[in-house]
Specification:
heterodimer; A: 374 residues; mainly alpha; three-stranded antiparallel beta sheet; globular; B: five-stranded antiparallel beta sheet
Chain lengths: 374, 624
């Protein structure tokens, strides 16, 4: 009996390992490797602070991801609301006691690590809304009450992040939330009308923007307006990408970044450096890896039996896609500059932590795909 | 059961929406890829160029200037390595500190220090600031020893102009100095090649041949970062040195001319009578052009500028002087050519008691006692003014000016070669009518006959005139640039009607130097190899009044500015002429006592050097 129990348990563990999504894991590892190489290049071909730090974070967080994968997805279901509120509290804490860097108060000092709660919120808002709609009957989804609650769930963290101020992240948080609403079956007309309303209110929103944000919009519309000032980043970024050509300038040979023409090359503009050094082919390859990851995430969602897991996977996959698209559009001069990192590639612990937790939950959903949540 | 069917509905809804979003994702992804394609493949060239423009910056270095050589290939304007101190303000972290350190190390004066700060304000922060342009080796090593403390300061060995013969060639070559705004505006070549510290020709041949001499910049191509800091050198494109220019001048004779004119204001010109090569051309006093290379000090500049002997004026070319009696050979020649007189024609010179009188004006000969009855040869020999008054009167100014112009008087000898060369002036009736609006007076013809009045010539014109008399009346074109072989159609053309007339003039000039009672008899050389023939001249700078004539003062008793100019023209060796000389001493007194003795020393040297010059030339051909 005891033996059987142990065997069963062991069986269970090996079963779990066997159930790991190896394509997803392999893609993430490959992406991690590419991101490390790129970080090595931003350090000028030396293993310096950014490379080391990125490596440590990646190793720690991918381990965390594996731990999460083996945890039952039920656990996440049960703690969703609690974590959501915890992060909301952290956001409030940030506003009052946060660490200020480059003009906005985004970080909490946890003594051993500075954490950016807004990044975490990108994942946990999905989790929270997924749980909320898991129990909802389809006909109740569009009821006034549920619309109100879900709007509050989105609006609360969004407004807390906007006043940091961090427009980019708050937009990404709300997009993540809205994506969940979309999958949950919100009426199409809500999306249509809210899109219409936001379009109409755009002039008012712009008038409330901070001067630097207005400048970014203006710069996006015409980067040559001030090539050495506000337009500098976007022009230099386009030059870097454009000069890469088909095959790129070669690893460690990106002159634009090496000669410090690229600002923010570790974080938001990491793709620029990658694209300069590896060219069109490298960039498409990178996009392909991201596409495979997103495809696997959605695939896992589609095989999940539980609605919670499905909703999470779909929304997470779609959010990931949105993050990537926004970041790339930004560095390619298709969107105004809003602070949004490229998942895994960009330097930044909180963003990577959130993404890895997301992947962990997705993998857990794969391993526990046969389970349904009551 | 209801729950079950609701679940199915929910799954249907979510999957449908997933599909819609999936399609949207594919489209958006396609958009991103096409954007990448547009930037990296289609516009690649444009961005590649922009990227290179970003990363590559060029630095121009000063070009190495071409050198000047004398006839024998000795460098007379060369280059030397100057120890300099450069810094680029934007590359220096703490400019104040660095510049103060330099000040202490070099021991700069407050004045020099202020100048550097002023210069710094005038240039752009990425341009080179030249802190010191000609350091001694000692200071240069001091700086090198302290480099660890002088971030961004560059000790540079720069090529700079050097004139080894100092004041000897100043008036021919001119000098170089820092290019200023005017130089840059006027010459596109300078504009194109300009870098901080570029030196350009300011006067003389240095200025005339600027475009040939300047050479081309060496270019250093550096990869720079976003802050303009040099990262690595990509290429070094070596510029070409400017052309070398060889002159016809013999430094030994040039130096002798300088010695002979020491402490005097004047000019010596020496010319080959056949090919027109200028063997020497010196104007005194001169100055050391090396002082100008790095900017002359205010004190020295004032000394040069205010010197009453006018060192800045090239007297050989831009000094307009009355030729005095040195015009007499031309007057005589013109009279012979126009058949006004024959060699036997005589005039009686009665001295001061009985001067020639025309239209109520008295015309005195220089000799108080008078020369008695003189023919052409005697008149030339003793420089009898009365004789020349008479033949000038008979000749008329227009015929005289015609002959004078044929011999090169009244026009620039070197054309456009020197920007400071003067025309001189050969008057005629038409000229006076046009220039002064007055009719010519006969009295003016008479004084023109002894080289006074309106007539003005430059020393180089007199030299050319003498050369053409010496070579038998053939036209020559003087040259000072050896390789300048312009073919003039009328080169060596005969400019006299009868060579017999030229012979008579040559003989008269011979008598003036080599026969007793000749005006320059005391300066003669009896050795046939060196024997020369000449004509003295004493040009009045002011009208001689009756009182002056009665006083009859010695030269040393007259104020400097009122003393006569002493002139002498000569050619030699007489038996087989080769060289012509003109000598002018400003306010020197009489030509026979001041100018002619110099010719004696000069001819010794010139003729000694002739063999060497000839051998050098033939050796040159043998070597080929």
């Amino acid at each position: 009996m005891y033996l059987h129990n142990r065997l069963n348990k062991q069986n269970n563990f090996f079963q779990k390992i066997r159930d790991l999504d190896l394509v997803l894991l392999g893609s993430i590892l490959l992406l991690g490797f590419i991101s490390l190489a790129t970080m090595y290049s931003t350090d000028g071909g030396q293993i310096l602070f950014h490379t080391k730090s990125h490596f440590i974070k990646f190793s720690v967080f991918i381990s965390l991801m594996l731990v999460i994968s083996f945890m039952n997805i039920k656990i996440w279901f049960s703690i969703s609301y609690a974590v959501y509120f915890l992060i909301v509290l952290m956001l409030i804490w940030t506003i009052n006691f946060g660490v200020t860097a480059s003009g906005s108060q985004r970080w909490i000092d946890l003594y051993f690590i500075n954490i950016q709660p807004s990044e975490l919120m990108k994942i946990f808002i999905i989790l929270c809304l997924a749980k909320y709609f898991h129990r909802k009957r389809l006909e109740n989804v569009n009821s006034f009450y549920s619309v109100l609650v879900s709007v509050i769930i989105i609006f609360l963290p969004m407004s807390l992040v906007v006043i940091q101020p961090d427009l980019g992240t708050s937009i990404l948080i709300s997009i993540s939330g809205i994506l969940v609403l979309w999958f949950a079956g919100f009426n199409h007309k809500y999306f249509f009308y809210s899109f219409l309303i936001s379009l109409l209110s755009l002039p008012f929103i712009i008038s409330f923007l901070k001067p630097y944000q207005k400048l970014r919009v203006l710069t996006f519309l015409n980067p040559d307006r001030d090539p050495l000032g506000a337009g500098y980043q976007i022009i230099q970024s386009k030059i870097a990408v454009g000069s890469g050509g088909l095959f790129g300038k070669g690893f460690l040979k990106g002159t634009q970044s090496y000669l410090e023409f690229l600002p923010e090359k570790h974080t938001d503009f990491i793709f620029t450096l990658f694209s300069e050094e590896f060219g069109f082919l490298g960039s498409v390859l990178l996009l392909l890896i991201y596409a495979i990851i997103i495809y696997r995430v959605i695939k896992i969602g589609s095989i999940s039996r539980s609605y919670f897991a499905k909703l999470f996977c779909y929304s997470f996959g779609a959010s990931l896609f949105v993050y990537i698209v926004i970041n790339m559009s930004m560095v390619l001069g298709l969107l105004p500059i809003v602070g949004s990192p490229l998942p895994i590639m960009s330097y930044g612990g909180s963003s990577m932590l959130a993404t890895m937790i997301g992947f962990g939950i997705v993998m857990s959903a794969k391993i526990h795909s046969k389970q349904s949540i009551a | 059961m209801i729950n079950q069917s609701d679940n199915v509905l929910k799954l249907n809804s979510i999957n449908r929406r997933m599909f819609i979003l999936g399609v949207a994702k594919v489209i958006i992804l396609g958009g991103i890829v096409s954007r990448l394609f547009f930037l990296q493949i289609k516009e690649n060239k444009k961005y590649l160029t922009l990227s290179d423009k970003n990363r590559i910056r060029e630095w121009k270095l000063p070009p190495v200037r071409g050198i000047f050589q004398d006839f024998f290939g000795n460098t007379i304007a060369g280059n030397f390595e100057a120890y300099q101190l450069h810094l680029i303000p934007e590359e220096v972290e703490n400019f104040r500190y660095t510049i103060n350190r330099i000040k202490n190390i070099l021991g700069l004066s407050e004045n020099q220090f202020k100048k550097i700060l002023k210069k710094k304000k005038e240039i752009k922060s990425w341009e080179t600031l030249i802190v010191a342009n000609n350091l001694t080796w000692e200071n240069f090593s001091k700086i090198n020893n302290n480099l660890y403390d002088l971030n961004g300061v560059k000790p540079v060995i720069s090529i700079s102009r050097n004139y080894p013969f100092k004041e000897n060639y100043t008036h021919i070559l001119g000098y170089v100095s820092q290019a200023n705004e005017e130089d840059i505006l006027k010459n596109d070549n300078i504009k194109e090649k300009f870098v901080q510290g570029l030196k350009v020709g300011k006067t003389g041949l240095e200025k005339t041949f600027e475009n040939d001499l300047i050479g081309s910049n060496s270019i250093e191509r550096y990869e720079v970062n976003a802050y303009g800091r040099r990262i690595s050198q990509l290429a070094f494109q070596k510029g070409d040195q400017g052309q070398s220019i060889r002159l016809t001048v013999d430094t030994e004779i040039q130096k002798l001319a300088n010695e002979l004119l020491a402490e005097k204001a004047g000019s010596i010109c020496v010319m080959d009578i056949f090919n027109g090569n200028v063997i020497a051309m010196h104007s005194s006093p001169s100055f050391d052009p090396n002082e100008f290379v790095f900017g002359i000090s205010e004190d020295n500049w004032q000394l040069i500028r205010n010197n009453p002997m006018k060192p800045l004026v090239n007297k050989s070319l831009s000094g307009n002087y009355s030729p005095g009696s040195t015009i007499k050979p031309i007057v005589a020649l013109s009279a012979l050519e126009n058949e006004i007189i024959n060699p036997k024609f005589r005039v009686h010179c009665k001295g001061h008691k009985n001067p020639m009188e025309l239209y109520g004006q008295k015309y005195h000969c220089w000799k108080k006692e008078g020369h008695g009855s003189v023919n052409l040869r005697e008149a030339m020999k003793q420089s009898c003014d009365t004789y020349f008054y008479e033949i000038a009167r008979r000749l008329g100014v227009d015929k005289l000016s015609e002959t004078a112009k044929k011999f090169g008087l009244g026009e620039k000898v070197f054309g456009d070669l020197f920007n400071n060369e003067k025309n001189g002036l050969i008057p005629s009736t038409i000229w006076k009518k046009n220039a002064l609006g007055k009719n010519w007076l006969l009295g003016e013809t008479i004084i023109t006959g002894i080289g006074q009045g309106y007539i003005q010539t430059t020393p180089i014109q007199l030299c050319l005139m003498t050369a053409q008399i010496a070579n038998g009346g053939h036209k020559i074109y003087p040259k000072i640039i050896l390789d300048d072989n312009i073919n003039y159609e009328d080169k060596f053309a005969l400019i006299v009607k009868e060579t017999r007339n030229i012979k008579l003039i040559q003989d008269a000039m011979f008598s003036s130097t080599n026969e007793i009672r000749g005006t320059s008899y005391r300066s003669r050389i009896d050795d046939l190899n060196y024997q020369f023939a000449g004509k003295t001249g004493t040009a009045q700078v002011k009208r001689i009044t009756k009182k002056d004539r009665e006083l009859d003062l010695e030269t040393s008793e007259i104020p400097y500015e009122e003393r006569d100019h002493a002139l002498y023209i000569a050619f030699g060796p007489y038996k087989n002429p080769r060289y012509a000389v003109s000598i002018l001493i400003e306010h020197g007194g009489s030509g026979s006592s001041v100018a002619a003795p110099l010719a004696k020393k000069l001819f010794k040297k010139i003729i000694d050097r002739h063999e060497i010059r000839k051998n050098f030339e033939s050796n040159k051909y043998l070597n080929i």
